[in-house]
Structures are given as structure tokens and as C-alpha cells.
């Protein structure tokens, strides 16, 4: 299934919502966690992943 991984900026979040594509946020700046939390509360995204916890070891992507 296609999905978007994004930083959670306001414009990017709006574009993702308009597209209807599943997404997950990986915020790394001040206000970005707020948008990740809003997406989670809306029930359209899992909880945001802190950028410092993203690694090759915990990704579920395939090579």
C-alpha cells in the first residue's frame, strides 16, 4: 500500500489529507508534532515517530 512519510508541516499535512493517501509523520521541528497528534486524533494516521527513533533496524520496508 502506498503511504507518505512526512515531517508534519502544515502545508504537507494539508496536502496529504487532500490526497487521501495514508501517512505517518516524523516531526523534527517545533510545531510539527502538533500536526502528527491531530492526524492521530482524527484516526487517519498512527502516532508520530520521533525522528531520532527512525533507523534502518526498525523500518519495515523491503530492499
Biggest beta sheet attributes: 2 strands, parallel
Q: What would you call the quaternary organization?
A: single chain
Mean pLDDT: 88
| Percent range of helical residues | 25-40%
Straight-line N-to-C gap = 16 Å
State the order of secondary-structure elements, H for helix, E for strand: EHEH
Please count the beta strands (DSSP E, at least 2 residues each): 2
Radius of gyration over all CA atoms, rounded: 11 Å
Shape: globular
The largest sheet has its strands arranged as 1-2
Discrete helix count: 2
- The domain count comes to 1
The percentage of residues in β strands lies in 5-15%
**Which stretches are low in confidence, meaning pLDDT under 50 for 5 or more residues running?**
none
What class would the helix/strand composition place it in?
Answer: alpha+beta
Which secondary structure elements does this structure contain, and how are they paired or packed?
Blueprint: E1 4-6, H1 10-19, E2 23-25, H2 32-42
Parallel strand pairs: 1-2
Amino acid at each position: 500500500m502506498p503511504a507518505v512519510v512526512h515531517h508534519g508541516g502544515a502545508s504537507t499535512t494539508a496536502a496529504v489529507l487532500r490526497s487521501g493517501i495514508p501517512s505517518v509523520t516524523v516531526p523534527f521541528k517545533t510545531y510539527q508534532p502538533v500536526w502528527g497528534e491531530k492526524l492521530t486524533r482524527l484516526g487517519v494516521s498512527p502516532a508520530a515517530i520521533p525522528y531520532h527513533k527512525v533507523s534502518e533496524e526498525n523500518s519495515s520496508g523491503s530492499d
